């Protein structure tokens, strides 16, 4: 009964409902406007909402998250510029559709499919999370440690970049998180005897720098690209279109939830994998993929929205973020004095059910805003980058300053912004850095707990791992990720997959 | 799985920037700096002393040392791999990595950070926005002033009054102005 009441919190309090709606509305635009991303918006928002109560702050962020993941599709379809990373695959078939004058249909299908995907993700979250958290109470410190490592590694291995760069980025994040005084022994780490470093580096400064300033600097390369106007016709798709793609949408939603729930990997990776899946299973698309296939829209859009619900599963049950945005939300919960993990579900189940309720509401708002207001939308999206970029920079600086009212945070933020800019240029993923910073403490604490309970004996530590099925599976997963990147594996995979692929892709 | 999109600009972790099988200008230098920086951090991590006991596996040194060693090895491998790759043809540092615009904006950002506290949010931001928007949009002064000051006022209202964020007031008597407006709207007591 309590759970139902908590679930309904957002529906009964007009203020929260308004904030979710406002967040979703803003999210659609944040997602749609190239150069503004959800990670950027949420990391800047943390600094502005930290004085609020936790419910309103979370309501706003959830709205932005849900709306933003969807919003990216709009500009991907209309301009061939994915407004958000999760819409990269959407552009592949969405833009060809728009060029044929079917932008309205494309947007309509995308909206409805995002809605379906979103609900499947939330449903899985509501059903699975309580079980996972019960199970998580049995987790040993070493399991948490292995999960953290797994999360950081997964981002690198599932993206199309190189794993070794992902590993570097993740380790760097952990090192950044270790700066300052060690909470257990008060020993100084990486402080170089500077008083400035003793309190550690504010993770919000790192986030705003990496996702705000570095993105804005990156966008300077595209400042003169003009927006292309498209004519938009009827948006609301026919029931038969939705029905026809329902089986595929269920499959790709599943992919989305699973990828979302894996620690570290979020909507952007889920969308690309779902697109790939649709390409393999669709035998006779009406039009070839890349040329305006409806399936090419359905797959990534269901997957990226269902990944939202998925991403909350490890975040709420284990305290391990499912993707970059949930990593930032964990930071927000920390600031509000909450500690995401299995105990949160036990101590404050209300918080969980409130989040589920807010997600449901955000999903409904997304459908409403998605199918209406297209005229206003085309106007706002034409906002020139020459104005947008300086504004993002301004907000980043004010945001970094506002958290602690300290200028040193601003300098850290700028430093990481410039650093992130080069990392982006040279193909280092930024997600693992944020994951590393957020998970640094968890990794360190749990390693020390685990090794102390084994009397500092590595042999006993590994003995412990192999005596527990869960730890063994996690360790094997970590090892598999490494093996999967070696030339040996690639050759073996090519050997096994060769005969099948030739038939389908040809 | 390999999906080739044209968006190799590092906007996403699913498709980070850079090129596979080719080296961008400056990539080798960046890699070398990362490698040397990692080595320095390994050295620094080694210097972490446990005040309460031996520097064993559970000491505050353990995880920092392990991660920095991982960083150093990874950076070393990246550097070694990059060194053997051919350079991307047709790209230069000045054109594709650090164009003049980026350098100017970066310098302006630092200047903004320095000036924020002594001079205050409103004047610093106004100057920053006007110069940046003029530089990037290359439109007339009227448009530039209207857009930059208009959005600044909007941001100020949203953050100072709605979110009640503390922003350095500097030389502008913000509190007095807000108070003046409050008393104006509340009318006589």
UniProtKB/TrEMBL annotation, chain A:
Membrane found in the keyword field: yes
Name of a matching Pfam family: TctA
Record InterPro entries: DUF112_TM (IPR002823)
Bilayer-crossing regions: 16-42, 54-72, 106-132, 144-176, 196-217, 320-339, 351-374, 386-404, 410-440, 461-483
UniProt keyword annotations, A-Z: Membrane, Transmembrane, Transmembrane helix
Key word S-adenosyl-L-methionine present: no
UniProt domain DUF112: residue ranges: 17-435
PANTHER family the record matches: TRICARBOXYLIC TRANSPORT PROTEIN (PTHR35342)
Name assigned to this protein: Putative tricarboxylic transport membrane protein
Originating organism: Pseudooceanicola nitratireducens
UniProtKB/TrEMBL annotation, chain B:
Metal-binding in keyword set: no
Pfam family, one: TctB
Keyword terms, alphabetized: Membrane, Transmembrane, Transmembrane helix
Transmembrane segments: 28-48, 60-80, 92-113, 119-137, 149-171
Stretches for region Disordered: 1-21
Domain (DUF1468) ranges: 29-168
Keyword Membrane included in the entry's annotation: yes
Origin superkingdom: Bacteria
Name of the protein: Tripartite tricarboxylate transporter TctB family protein
Source organism per UniProt: Pseudooceanicola nitratireducens
